[in-house]
Amino acid sequence: MKTLKSYLYVVALLSVALCACKKNEPYVAPAKSFTVAAEKAVYFATGNLQYQPSTHSWRIAENAYDIGVNANPTAETDKWIDLFGWGADGWNGGIAAYQPYAISQTEADYYPGGDYSADLTGEYAQADWGRYALNDGVEWRTLTADEWKYLFEGRANCDSLYAFAVVENIPGLIILPDDWNFEMWGLFFKPGNLPYRDNQLVASDWIQLQEAGAVFLPAAGLRNGKSLVDKKVAGNYWSSTHVGAYGAYKMNFYSKGIKPKAAQGRFYGHSVRLARSAD
Length: 279
Description:
The structure is a single chain. This protein is an alpha+beta fold and 279 residues long. It has one domain. The protein contains 5 helices and 14 strands. The strands form 5 sheets. Strands 7-5-6-8 form a 4-stranded mixed sheet. Strands 1-2-14 form a 3-stranded antiparallel sheet. A hairpin with a 4-residue loop joins strand 3 and strand 4 (57-60). It is globular and about 50 Å long. The protein starts with a helix and ends with a strand.
């Protein structure tokens, strides 16, 4: 068994070396599935969704741990931003603050079709970043609130399928696929509700984990109007589900804790991690 582990470890190191030779190419990991409901699974994008206002360009972040430049975004901003108001994906389908750089703090400006009870699905699916913004031929979408909740509370062994970590000096949350091989990869980190600092990883560590199917969500904080809050402290990831007249559900995490279905005002800028069906 030790001989097999040694062989696999050498193969992993060779993979890291090959990836390092292609620094100008975004790293794409093999798809590993994550169950988000009974008989429903998804593959996650390898990085957060990002937007460059000056060129009207969208992309998946080049590295899982990348965080955009999000303070005071405008139409002329030439940096990549990645904190967006709910449904602000550039589709002018009834959301007043539809531009990705919108900083309006009026909740009603984020109603799809002007309807506070609408989700980013069905008639208003174009307000989902995956359906409208990232037109790359893949059927991306944002998870629903119930799917985020199932991911962390409904999967078999769910308490062991995530870990808080610092990757390349960026705190965040590692999420593991359903078929994670703990015997082989457990030496890299300790799963469960532990402080970020308990799992310190460099880029080469992360490439190996990503190659094995792990996903990393950086703690980018949130944007309140023009200002940033909790950068490198907490992560806030939108769902496609509204709550009440003013809010929408998000997945929120901070060192040692996760709230998979938390309510938030729609005007706050949050991260977006897209997924696609594994069916």
